Amino acid sequence: MNNLKLRETKETGKQEVSKQTKLVLVHQVGRVGSKSVEESVRKSNKTAQVVHIHYLHPENHKKYMEIANGKNAIKKTADAFAYHPGKAHRIVEFLKCNQKNLEHLTVISGYRDPLDHAISNFFQNLSDLVPQCELIPETHETDLKFAQKTFFNLVNKLIKNKRSQRFHTLLGMFAVRGPMSWFDTEMNVYGIDIYKHKPDPDGIITIRGKQVLHIVYKFETLDQQLAKITSMVPGSNNFVEVKTNRARDKEHNDLYTEFRKRFLPTEEMMEYYYNNKYFKHFYANENPHFQFTEK
């Protein structure tokens, strides 16, 4: 059976099918170390075609386009959001058209403490959401206050399900939403109910189907489990570790670290991020990363 290769470019969007031993989709919610996973698989598996994607479900494409078309949008960010649904559509169509011939498909996804994910995603979009932050030592405390105020306002709007057409509000609420709904929608693309599959002692879920191997890993143990995750991909040979796109390497790392250190969630935040099936399933018998403290 011929194996398949998906190659697409931003300029043309063309797909090419040729002999290739493996296809790997790093299908991620974001901020779960996915770039390190992607590059480690690529370096450790010379026969794999690795494609990185965040969303395949049409419901999430609508959210992307809503952000891209928001009022007073920042063009560079809006263009990135607008491009994503087209890329996702090409991948879905490729998989549909080649389903019968596709011998090896590996899908790798990751999960993370939901409130910790929201904070990380907020800081990933910090320059758009809090442009007042100068990220220099002289403005550290002022930057911190700006970031705290903006984050709490966005989460409050999210919890209260506030509606807006403004780009910054749409982007911000999307950034802090947490990973909970991602697993409800994106796993449905494969017809999988992730909540029927429990993590192993290493925090990894493995689902083997006739044509698809799903690997779902725990972000908090990724450094320790990256070699294991990579070796599970068919065709992997010598493990090559690549660590990239980490918070510690970013310009905002000092502010991010201090923000997390001082962070005190509200009762409403604890309810929203932790009292749900996502946290109870993936983090059964574990405490939340952040704790509510009575003032």
Topology:
Elements: E1 22-27, H1 34-44, E2 48-53, H2 58-68, H3 75-97, E3 105-111, H4 114-124, H5 126-129, H6 140-159, H7 167-175, H8 180-186, E4 205-208, E5 212-218, H9 222-232, H10 253-262, H11 267-274, H12 277-282
Parallel strand pairs: 1-2, 1-3, 3-5
Antiparallel strand pairs: 4-5
Helix pairs in contact: 1-9, 2-3, 2-7, 6-7
Describe the structure.
The chain is of the alpha/beta class. It has one domain (22-282). It contains twelve helices and five strands. A five-stranded mixed β-sheet has the order 2-1-3-5-4, with helices on both faces. Strand 1, helix 1 and strand 2 (48-53) form a beta-alpha-beta unit. The relative contact order is 0.17. Residues 1-21 have low confidence and may be disordered.
Distance between the termini: 65 Å
Low-confidence stretches: 1-21
Helix content: 40-55%
Mean pLDDT: 90
* Total helical segments: 12
Q: Going across the major beta sheet, what is the strand order?
A: 2-1-3-5-4
Strand tally: 5
Global geometry = globular
> In percent, how much strand structure appears in the residues?
5-15%
**How many separate domains?**
1
Sequence of secondary-structure elements: EHEHHEHHHHHEEHHHH
Q: Please compute the radius of gyration using only Cα atoms.
A: 20 Å
